[in-house]
Amino acid sequence: MTRVNAPTDRAAPAGEAADAWNTRALVARHKVAALAGLVAIALLVVIVVGGILTSKPVVVSDATSCTTWGSANQTQQAAYARRYVSEHGSLPGGVTDPAKIVAAINAGCSEANVNDVEDDVNVVQAIHG
Hints:
Blueprint lengths: L13 H4 L5 H7 L1 H24 L11 H6 L2 H15 L9 H17 L8 H6 L1
Helix pairs in contact: 5-6
């Protein structure tokens, strides 16, 4: 048996070497664009991480404005509706269903939004008109 020790990587002909590219060669040829891309990626990472670190859960209370109410998720809204019934009693007409209380707040906040006072109206005021 004869052994042939030939390299597995063959050098490309001179004409093809210029056409072949990899990330390192691309960055070397387009330094400004590569730097701009890295800066953009770093900026996006900073924005996302900053948003995650500064965000806090919405706590709905009687003083919550309609603007903040709109940012609360359905679970938070339903929890407030149950707390509203335990603290304030039923709505006019004896309504104690949390879904109907959330609907009443949404209707009041929609009206406040139309009148451009959603920052000034809290959820209790929205319920009572």
